[in-house]
Amino acid sequence: AYKGTPDGESPDQAPNRGHGLTLAMDTAPTFPDKIETEIGKAVEITEQELTDEHLPFYPLKPDGKTSDLGAYHTAQEDTNYDTMDLSKMTAPSWEGFVADGTLKDRVSKINDQASVAKPVYPFNKTNMTESGHLIEVDDTKGAERLSWYHRSGTFTEWQPDGSTITRVNNDNYTLICKDDTIQVGGNVSISVFGDAKVAVKKDLYVGVAGDAKVEVLGETDVTSTKDLTVTAPNIKLYGNTIKLNS
Asked: Where do the segments described as Disordered lie (predicted)?
């Protein structure tokens, strides 16, 4: 299929290469044509439909305009940094989420995280693969970053101030075979737009030094197969109907 093309034998556009490809176009890796990311859904990747107009694949034929160093290395051409900008993602609907509207402000900060990528040549060392994976080691002064980007849009970025942003465009699994310890020096905000389940095989202890509030918009059931103890200086129960031993 490549005979007589720039990807065939003795390609004239690349004198440093003595022979072209032997693979078919349908097995050659290419950049995604489009990536659609939405919270609550798996990423949708639209692949390119390859035609003869895409030849040659390797090496890319120089056009006199594009640097062979790559767009992310020179920062002079179009990049996909917008896809790493969480502030440009459509925020999920908070309608009917909780009665306390202030909770939205406390847990929606993640949707405010903008991309800080401002690479300046020649300080961004990059490795962009044929299918669209990207690794960056950016030493640009004031915008130092490390970034690992998968062609699906899943990425982790370490930012100039030491912050880390991770987005997983599909399911995420973490397995810890022994103990796990997490220490947070500030606040923690968790928002779940589906169901949440926590299973503990042995004992569970929750300690709160301040106040505690549980707000439920639906029904609430508390079941214990053994004794239940509630201790407080004052206990108040409010309800249109209160039934004991019913």
From this structure: 1-23
Which residues have C-beta within 8 Å of that of residue 72, sequence separation ≥ 6? 79, 119, 124, 126, 128, 134, 136
pLDDT in tens, 97-124: 665 556 666 666 677 777 888 899 899 9
Q: Is residue 71 a part of any domain in this protein?
A: yes
List the one residue out of 148, 170, 129 whose CA is nearest residue 45. Answer: 170
What pLDDT digit, counting tens, does each position of 237-246 carry? 999 998 888 6
pTM of model > 0.85:
no
**Distance between CA atoms of residues 28 and 55, nearest Å:** 11
Domain of residue 47, residue span: 25-167
The answer to whether position 49 is within a domain reads: yes
Tokens at 220, concatenated:
């609430």
